[in-house]
Amino acid sequence: MLGGIKQADGQRQRFVCTTLGWGSSMDCSDKVPIFISLKSFAEYSQNKSGVSLFGYIYHEWVNCQIVQPELTNIFQNGQALIFLDS
Question: Is the Cβ–Cβ distance between 41 and 56 less than 8 Å?
Fold first, then answer.
């Protein structure tokens, strides 16, 4: 188990998510995991006004050749699974 996530099926990139300490789990195979360092987000937004978490995620993912409408669809369809790392 690494940070509450265990890769269960490498071919489908299926994730099993657990609520730490509760012993429950849910199938997250239809979710897109998004890992965010709060420190990096704070540094990114420090000298900018009107920064949103969505804008920061898009900024980080633009190198992965994802376009904004695709990222918007992930959020609108409830497919984003956001992990915040302090």
Answer: yes
Domain borders along the chain are 1-30, 32-86
Q: Structure pTM?
A: 0.63
pLDDT digits (tens, 9 = 90+) for 49-85: 888 999 898 888 888 888 889 989 999 999 988 888 8
- Residue 60 in contact with residue 42, Cβ under 8 Å? no
What b/e readout covers 30-66, taking b as 16+ CB neighbours within 10 angstroms?
ebbebeeeeeebeeeeeeeeeeeeeebbbebbeeeee
Among 38, 31, 16, 15, residue whose Cα is nearest residue 79: 31
